Each structure stands twice: as structure tokens, then as C-alpha cells.
Amino acid sequence: MRVKKGALLMAMVALLAVLLGETALADRAPDPRFAPPKNYDNPGRGTPQNLVKGDFDEDGVVDLVMAVADSANDVSLFEGKRDGTFVQPPKQFDVARYAAYAVKSDFNGDGHLDLAVSDIGKSQTAPGAVVVLLGKGDGTFEKARSFPSGGKQPTGLAVSDVDGDGDKDLAVANSVSGDPNSAAGNVTVLLNNGEGAFEAGQSVEPPTPPSSRVGPVFLAAGDLDGDGDPDILATAFVATQAGETGNVLVLENGEGRYARGQSVAVGADPQQIVVGLFDGDRRPDFATAGGESNNVSVGLGNGDATFGKTRGFPSGGVGPTSLLARDLNKDGKKDLATTNIGEGPGGGGNVGVLTSRGDGTFKKSKTFRAGNGPAGLTAGRFYRDGRPDLAVANAFSNKLSVLKNTTPR
Ligand SMILES: [Ca+2]
Ligand SMILES: [Ca+2]
Ligand SMILES: [Ca+2]
Ligand SMILES: [Ca+2]
């Protein structure tokens, strides 16, 4: 008996050592670090909104596309060079009245990257549009074509094959539906005819409690229930007399039609949303930036398109807008990065990086300087050293900032 007890104790000590060792190892992964920004001018007037990366001129080096609101030129293409820098000046394109957001895909299936840009139009009350730019593969585009967005004030776009016919469709978040009897915006599906032309399909309005206004803002597509077709998560502001709150609305895809699912409470003024695996259970989770709550809300998925109560993590600054999930310190766990726009044109702002612990929680954010009013964000291996760098679109200075990843290996 004594021997057995001793062996058991030894085994427990060994197990404890392994567990402690693993914890120590996990904690030893350094937090992501970034060098001071290298800045690039976007000539002219404008308020950059978001960034899209892709090799638009097909020279083997990733380029950056900036969607720019309130500008004569709505799309700027910064061509990447092999040394991690970008060609100045960028190529600029006049395609929209008021560009709010851009996404990329190959919409006509010719192998060249294309763009779709949500266009608010000449005023807040104008019918919204989505402008499609078919790429020629040399960093230029065919003449832009505009398609009705199915509502007003379109912002967020998501790309996925909604109807399963092999081409990439769009979903667009219209903050206002355009129906005078409705206090809700909508999410409208734009179905691709296979050649990059789009027609408005189903529109879904979020549930709207009495005396409130609910407006979808940003979208993310992902297979949330594991049935193989793309579901959608929409962030929406909820405005009532008592103030503003935020929701994430689940739209479940059933053979190409969306049904409204759960509404999950998140921080006020929710902005960009990403789907990712944050707690290691292979069930898709989400994270969204709360523009007024100054945090990132993380919702852990149950694998059936429902989510548990969200948990908020401070974003490290004021007014988080863009958000991405990427393993920034190469420890196998997806971290979060968000642009905090700051307090106004003089407020600076920063980039907040939240290091994942791998269990759905994140360490206190580390902040990095970008430009004036960071608003758009993407990550890519711009410096080609295996580590993801960050690119930031600065709303107040109309500049691009690139932050080299300097995390110790
Ligand atoms: Ca390129
Ligand atoms: Ca194409
Ligand atoms: Ca399709
Ligand atoms: Ca990580």
C-alpha cells in the first residue's frame, strides 16, 4: 500500500510538473510587438475607411486597397514592393459618391481579383449602392458598375456563396431600410449572375423593439452551425430614448435563405466583426469592436449558430472601429488587433493588440502608435519575414501606416 501511494504521489507530482511546465511555456510566448509606423500619403482630400490586401497587379507581392470616404477618389491602390514598402503615390480611382467599405473577391471567375465598394451616395437619404470593380490583373479595373444595395446608408459587406451555385455573392448591411414605415435597417443579399453583376435578393430586417431604431452596420460570414453553408453575423446599433446599445444578429443560412436567429448583446456602437476560433473547441466564435464601449466583445460559439453571453476586453483606446483576428506572435493562437480612432482629429488614436490566451480570453491590450485617427486595419506579410505585419488606414490624416512585426522569436 505504501509503495502504491508513493507511486501515485509521484505520478501526481509528475503530472503537476507537466501542467505547470505547459502553462509556463504558454506564458513564455512573447506578446506581439510592432515597430513605429512607416507612413504613406494618400494625395487629396478624404477619410479612409478600411483596407483590403491582395495582389491586384499579380507581381507576386501583396498590395493594399484603401476605401476612402468623402473624396474625389474613393479607392486607392498602394502597390507593394519586395522590400516591404509601397509605391508612392498610390493609384487612385473615382468609382463612388461616398465609399464606406471595400471587400475583394474574384466575382467573375476570371482569376483576377475584383473589388466591391459600398456607396452611401450623395446624401444620407439617397438609395445605397454597391459598386463592383472587375480587376484586369494589372492593378487597374474595368469601368465600375453600380448595383442597388436594397436600402440606404450601406456600410458592411460580406462575401460568400450564399446560394451555393459556385460564384461569390455579397451581403450588404443597410443601416436604414428606406421603407418609411420601418425603424430598422436591413441586411440584403446581392446574388451574383456569375459574371460579376448583382441583383438584390432577400432582405432581412433585425428585430426592432418598440420605440427603438436598429441599424445593421458590419457583417461577417462563416459556417456557424457546421452544415456547410455560410451564415452571417451582423453588428447593429440599437437606439432608444434611454440611449444606445449594441447587438450581434445571427442570420442562419438554410439552402440560400436566411432566417433570423439569436440576437446577442454586445458593447454600444458595434463596429467591425470577425468570426474565428478563440477558445480551442473548433466551434466558431466572434469578436466585435464596441465604438462607444471602448472594448472588444467576444462571443463563444456553441456550434449551432448560438453564442454564450459575451465578455468584453478593453480595446486599449477610444473608439475602436476595425478589428482583425490573426496569430500575431506565432504561438498558434489567434490574437485580436483593433484600431482605436481616438478623440478627434487632434486625438491621435492607436492600435490595440489583445494577445490570446487560447481559452477565449485575452491579455490586457498593448498599444502601438499608427497615424492620426486609425480606422481601417489589415494584416499581411508585407516585410516577407514570415510574421504578419499591420497596415492601418488613418481617417484624419488620410495616410496609410505600415507597422512591422518585431515580436521576438
Ligand atoms: Ca502586387
Ligand atoms: Ca475577376
Ligand atoms: Ca452564388
Ligand atoms: Ca497568438
Number of strands: 27
How many strands, what sense, and barrel or not for the largest sheet? 7 strands, antiparallel
Looking across the biggest beta sheet, what order are the strands in? 6-7-8-9-10-11-12
List the bound ligands. Answer: calcium ion
Instruction: Report the structural category.
Output: mainly beta
- What percent of the residues sit in helical stretches (DSSP H or I)? under 10%
Strand content: over 45%
Rg on CA atoms, Å: 22 Å
Count of DSSP helices? 1
Q: Provide the low-confidence segments as ranges.
A: 20-25
What does this structure look like?
This protein has 409 residues and is mainly β. 7% of the residues lie in helices and 46% in strands. It has 1 helix and 27 strands. The protein has a 7-stranded antiparallel β-sheet with strand order 6-7-8-9-10-11-12, with no helix packed on it. A 4-stranded antiparallel β-sheet has the order 1-27-26-25, with no helix packed on it. A hairpin with a 4-residue loop joins β18 and β19 (295-299). One calcium ion is lined by residues 106-108, 110, 112, 114, 134-135.
Topology, please?
Elements: H1 2-28, E1 38-41, E2 47-54, E3 63-69, E4 75-78, E5 91-93, E6 99-105, E7 114-119, E8 127-133, E9 145-160, E10 169-176, E11 186-192, E12 198-204, E13 212-222, E14 231-240, E15 243-254, E16 257-266, E17 270-276, E18 285-290, E19 295-299, E20 311-314, E21 320-326, E22 335-340, E23 350-354, E24 366-368, E25 374-380, E26 389-394, E27 399-403
Antiparallel strand pairs: 1-27, 2-3, 3-4, 4-5, 6-7, 7-8, 8-9, 9-10, 10-11, 11-12, 13-14, 14-15, 15-16, 17-18, 18-19, 19-20, 21-22, 22-23, 23-24, 25-26, 26-27
